[in-house]
Write a structure and sequence with these properties.
The complex is a heterodimer of chains A (115) and B (117).
Chain A lengths: L2 E4 L4 E4 L4 E8 L5 E7 L6 E7 L4 E4 L2 E6 L4 E6 L8 E8 L1 E2 L2 E2 L3 E2 L3 E6 L1
Chain B lengths: L4 E3 L2 E4 L5 E6 L6 E7 L6 E7 L2 E5 L6 E5 L5 E5 L8 E8 L12 E2 L3 E5 L1
Parallel strand pairs in B: 2-11
Antiparallel strand pairs in B: 1-3, 3-8, 4-5, 4-9, 5-6, 7-8, 9-10, 9-11
The chains are: A mainly beta (115), B mainly beta (117).
Chain lengths: 115, 117
C-alpha cells in the first residue's frame, strides 16, 4: 500500500542546533515534494518545493534534500530558534493525466525548539 | 491582500445534517482545492475546482460536493454528516491554474473547524 511516514513523535531540539526532519514514502513516484509549516489552529504555510531531478534546495536557514532512490526527503533547519517550533508537513505531488493530483500529505512532525 | 479567507471559523452540526463551507481564494488565484484534516493527521485532498468545474478528486464519497463561482470563490457541501466528518476543513488556492496547480506553492486559509455531534 502507499504510505508517507514522518517522525510521528515530537522532536525536541536545543536552540541553536540543527533540526533534521525525515519524510519517507513507499509505492509513490512523486514528481515534486513540498514542505509546509503548520501552527496550532492555522492553515499550513508553504516553505520549500523540490523537484524529482533536484538533489537539494536551500532558503535562508532551511535546506531540503530529495533522494528518489531511497524514497526519502530530509528537511533541515539550521541555527534553530524557539519560533521554529511547529508541525512540519511533507507533501508529495504525483503525476496524473498530464497534470498533478492534489497534494498527498504525511501526518507531520511536531518540532519543539527548547531555549 | 487578504490572502485566502474561509467562513465560518467554527461550526457545530448534528449527525445527518448538511453543511456548507465557504472559501475566497487569494487575489489573482483561480484554482481552489479543499482538504480535510482530522486531529493529529495531515490534510487529505478532497477535490480541486478550476473554471467552475471539479477537475481532480480525492478518495471522498459523493456526500462531499462543491461549487466554484465566476469570481473564483468556492463552496464545499457535505450531506448526511457523520461523526467522522469532524475535522478542520482547509481551502487552498494557487497562482498556477488547473491541473498544474499542485506543482506549485499552495496558499492555505485558516480553515473551518467542523464538529459533528
Amino acid at each position: 500500500s502507499q504510505k508517507i511516514e514522518q517522525n510521528s513523535e515530537a522532536l525536541n531540539i536545543q536552540e541553536g542546533k540543527t533540526a533534521t526532519l525525515t519524510c519517507n514514502y513507499t509505492n509513490y513516484s512523486p514528481a515534486y515534494l513540498q514542505w509546509y509549516r503548520q501552527d496550532p489552529g492555522r492553515g499550513p504555510v508553504f516553505l520549500l518545493l523540490i523537484r524529482e531531478n533536484e538533489k537539494e534546495k536551500r532558503k535562508e536557514r532551511l535546506k531540503v534534500t530529495f533522494d528518489t532512490t531511497l524514497k526519502q526527503s530530509l528537511f533541515h533547519i539550521t541555527a534553530s530558534q524557539p519560533a521554529d517550533s511547529a508541525t512540519y508537513l511533507c507533501a508529495l505531488v504525483l503525476y496524473s493525466g498530464g497534470g498533478a493530483d492534489g497534494l498527498t500529505f504525511g501526518k507531520g512532525t511536531h518540532l519543539i525548539i527548547q531555549p | 491582500d487578504a490572502g485566502v479567507t474561509q467562513s465560518p471559523t467554527h461550526l457545530i452540526k448534528t449527525r445527518g445534517q448538511q453543511v456548507t463551507l465557504r472559501c475566497s481564494p487569494k487575489s489573482g488565484h483561480d484554482t481552489v482545492s479543499w482538504y480535510q484534516q482530522a486531529l493529529g493527521q495531515g490534510p487529505q485532498f478532497i477535490f480541486q475546482y478550476y473554471e467552475e468545474e471539479e477537475r481532480q478528486r480525492g478518495n471522498f464519497p459523493d456526500r462531499f460536493s462543491g461549487h466554484q463561482f465566476p469570481n473564483y470563490s468556492s463552496e464545499l457541501n457535505v450531506n448526511a454528516l457523520l461523526l467522522g466528518d469532524s475535522a478542520l476543513y482547509l481551502c487552498a488556492s494557487s497562482l498556477v491554474p488547473g491541473l498544474y496547480a499542485s506543482y506549485n506553492e499552495q496558499f492555505f486559509g485558516p480553515g473551518t473547524r467542523l464538529t459533528v455531534l
